[in-house]
Every structure is written in structure tokens, then in C-alpha cells.
Amino acid sequence: MKTIINNASAIVVAALMTGCLQETESEFEKIAQRDDAIMEEYISSNNIDATKTQLGYYYRKDVEVEEGSQFTNNNVIGVYYEIKTVEGHLIDSHLDEEEAPILFKYTDNGLWPSAVGYAAGLAREGEEMTLYVPSYLAYNTYSYQQLISSGANLVVKVKYAKRYTQQELEQLEDEMIQAYITENELEGFEKKDSGIYVRVVEEGEGEPSKNGNNVTFSFELYQIGISEALAESEVNKSPSMSLGSQNNMDFLNEGLLNLPQGTTVEILAPSFTAYGETIQIIPQEIRFDLVKKGELQQITAPYTPIRFNAEIVDVK
If you average pLDDT over residues 162-171, what whole number do you get? Predict the structure, then answer.
């Protein structure tokens, strides 16, 4: 991650937690002072009973669950939320609990806007909170069309609904893959031991690929549920890899095995066999804009399967 996302958390922790402020105000410090004043005035003028944290955001517990367990570092948490600016402009809402929650890993860099992730440390499973978030713990200077304005200060309603085990996450992604196959009336997929699904769309000819071969392939990469390709190979610039290498993602080693030159294959792969645990971005639609602007390198959302279409160009 580059400046917009990383600096917000890194500078706040360094400056506010340790008190190591420079004598000359940086641009970030000016923003922080401005937004702290705005949020203090907002809390006061609206007679809001909220607690200010050391990091600078405020919180109020709306629903407490005394018997709920406390979240700890590296927990994977599912949340429902509504994000508005202090002026009342709706940025995103995911409140329907008949739908699956949005998942993130409780770490320093597991969720953006960061304050929503940090506040999980104050919550128990099932609790609901309202967060009052200055821009430097939200979207900072980032803007997106008419949805997000640079320097937006937020009011976030969030329910920290559930903690997920690894087994539950794997089952959830497998269900997503099966639902995709059913909804699109697809046939011919074979489930591998790793959890990936593979089907040969068009047969090739020659010796099938095996571990140790140098395999060249063209590809298109999608996230399940999104029609636009996240990445694709360039014309006449197909990538190559040594099949079976530990440096490869698991789904490539297994999905491109035993395929001769000319084979076209489709792979549905859970995230733990592909790009792993990436940062969660809310709203999810801005992820691709962040990637295009060079502010984010992680193109896939966490805990979400991918679809990988490939053609074997050469096997050596």
C-alpha cells in the first residue's frame, strides 16, 4: 500500500501514540488539527455522548453484549455497517443481515477506513457501535467521483457480528464457488484436494505439463461476482513459470498441471490458494480505482474466490 492508506495509520500511531511530533507542522498534522476541531464541535453541538480514543476517533456503544467474547489480534470479523459523512451524505451501507457480512482481519492494516478496524478492539461479538471518525482515520485525502470527498469526516454505524474460524472461511468460499457454478449453469468442473475447481474448456495436444516444466500461458483474472477483469496478460507477452515451484500460488501449480499445449482451462480458486489475506476496502467499488491510481497493489478482496481463465501457450 502507498501513501493514502498507509500514512494515515502509520503517522497517527507514531505521532499520537508516542508523542513524537516535529516542531514544524507537517501537512498531515494540519489536517489532523483541523479535523479534530471539526469532530469536537460536531460531538458538542449535537450533544452526543461518545468517548474519544487516543487515536482520535470517538465511539458510542449502541448495543452491548456482555456475554459476547472480545475480539483479539488476527481474528477474522464479519461486519454490517452504514457510512455517512458528518453532513449526512451516504457513502455506503451494508445492513441487511440476511446477506453475508463483510469480512476483514483484525490487524493494523486489515480494513480501510482504518478506524472501523481499530474499533473492533473495543467491541465484543454481536455489539453495535457508532463511530465518529476524522478524515485522517477514514479516507484521508482520497476522493472518488461524487461518492467520497477529500477530507471527509464520517459517522459510521457498525455491528461487529461474528468471528470466523479458518474452517468456516473455507466453507464460506466453497459455498460461493458452488453458487457461482449453479447460477451460471456451468458443467465439467472437478474439485481438487486444495479446494480449487478446474474444468477444461478446450483440449490441447502433446505432452501434458508436469512439475518442473516451464509453462507459458495467457490469462484473464476475475473476482467471482465481478464481470470486469482485474488483470490479464498482454498480447504476445504471456507469462511463464516453473510448474510446482513454491514461489507460485497454489491454484496455479495445481490448476495448470497435466495440461498439454493449446489447452484452455477455467479455474475457480478460493483466496487461500491464490492471493491470500488482502486488506478489505469499504466501499468495495473503490478498490479498483485505488489500484488504477497506484495507491493499492492488492487487486483482490479478502476471503473471496477468483476465476482464472488460461490458455497453455507452451510447455517445455
Answer: 96
